[in-house]
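Typical record is below.
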Amino acid sequence: MPLAIAIAALAIGFEQLIQWKWGPMGIIAFVLLTVGIKAKNTMVGGIGAAILVMLLAQSG
């Protein structure tokens, strides 16, 4: 049980970091990438990855 709480806390912290750094579009891209990977849907995962790459290129 403590491991599950720690993992949930890390996930929430990571989500907040993305929200702070790249805004709502970063969250959308991260969700698309995660859903694409879990559902083994390359199109959805690719869209999420492409959005993240564009956000990273813009901030750098």
About this structure: Residues 2 and 8 are 10 Å apart (CA to CA).
